[in-house]
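## tool: complex_structure
## caller: assistant
## args:
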Amino acid sequence: MTTSPAVVANPTVEAREVSKWFGQKVAVSDVTCSFGPGLTGLLGPNGAGKTTLLRMICGLLSTSDGSVSIHGTDPRRDHRVYRTVALVPEEDAVYGFLSARRFVTYAADLSGVSRAGVDEAIALVELISAADRPIAEFSKGMRQRAKVAAALVTDPDVLVLDEPLNGTDPVQRAHLIEIFKRLARSGKTVIVSSHVLAEVERMADRVIAIVDGRLAAAGDIHAIRQAMADIPYRLRIDIEQPRRVAARLIDSDNVSSVTVTGQTLRVETSDLPALGTELPRLAKDLGVRLTVFEPEDESLESVFRYLVRRRK
Amino acid sequence: MRAFLAIVRVTLRQVLGGKRWILLGLLSFVPAVVMWFSSANATADEAFVLYHEAPLGLLLLIVLPVVALVIGAGAIGDERRDATLSFLLLRPIRRATIVGAKFVAAWLATTLIVAAAGGLASAVVSLRTDSWQTLGPTVVALALSSAAYTAVFLVLGHLTSRAVLVGLVYVFIWESGFTYAAPGLANVSLSRIGLTAYAALVPDSTRLLADPLGSLTPGVGGALTKALVIAAACVLFGGFLLKRGDAAAE
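## result:
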């Protein structure tokens, strides 16, 4: 029997054939995945459906189809499950008029946990010096850390973080990643969404990738990295006499396709460095001026679209 | 109880924060100012009559509904707008408890403002009549109608982002229009809840309030029951909406 890499043996969080549509728009389509203790990265470009999936998992959104559970319980049916769950949402879901200390205390009061952990949670995200300032005065990164502190104070078994590193500087980012890793090592289920592959690589060994609301890839981050190795790069090249250049490029072993639009060439290559060497030489041979040579779609989105096409 | 009180505390700061407090505070002076100028040369009896002709109506038909609308609709509506609703919903608390705490905070804030407005207007009457008989009943009337208005607008604020607009239409078309044009509808008027309590507490006012009271029987018990039933129904309905609905849009 084969098991999908998107599911784990002893899950704490499960999404089974989950779909969500808003009117005509399908945000998440038939996604089955699960999460267990440890850190799992939920990876995908902006608008891929990560936030919608996380909100369904947490019970903030109903599913249009399929089901979700945390510790075997549908969070929309039993609010007691929130004793063990905390979400750090992507948006600025903070009370600007409260200080960080009062905000974290509010979280403790609402979850019915001791206030004794408030200072510890604030210290953990390194906000002690600003703890009594109104959150409205905080930078984006500080707000993110305040939200993380409000989640940590409840000591959750399941910690869901939606783009938690947005707006943080490199030092804060490294610090937060270390916190998430530490929680994962202590047996918590930590789910971190991000649209930045490098971020997820630093945090998670296991990744679930979502594109266009569908499961694009799942499993070990290194295997997914490997799968990306043969992705063709698309380049935009602005050059004089583009048709002459295109005719020469199409014969090159480094180029898999060329299209010409006005003065612009769009070239697909699987060997970017080789083409980077070849093209200036070719321009010199033909006596034409090269003005633009840039990757057109180096974004994560294109990478994952490629993965989706490959799956099909 | 700890979570309930925490929500009440934060909601009070939320709904009374910023410029809202100043605007609503200024509005609350209007009945007292109207009473002051309209009764400047009035005798005690005339001042008593004048209070029931204008300031009391202003309090129950304009000041209270507008204050209750802004505060009630904002109690949950602001959380939705600011994306903080998920902060409340992802807690081991019953949805009705969240709405109940929101209601208590909104009712306290509304009552605080309108009671101050009613107190000021009554103080002017007292200066003219040498009697404080309208003060207590005015505050009681406002507190009772405030409970009904706040509860209804709380749910409205959860249902639509245009709650203030819808609420103003309700206040000026329904409360100030239809329920006066068709006396039979007085039974379903939120401002009349307070008015029936007021009329029972100030028997001399019954003849002056004959028109707005219509066929309603003055009584504090009935008014209290009505206000509590409306508040409880709205809290339960709001809890149901929170549980069933999506806390975040696309």
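## assistant note: The longest helix of chain A spans residues 170-185. The longest strand of chain A covers residues 25-35. Handing back to user.
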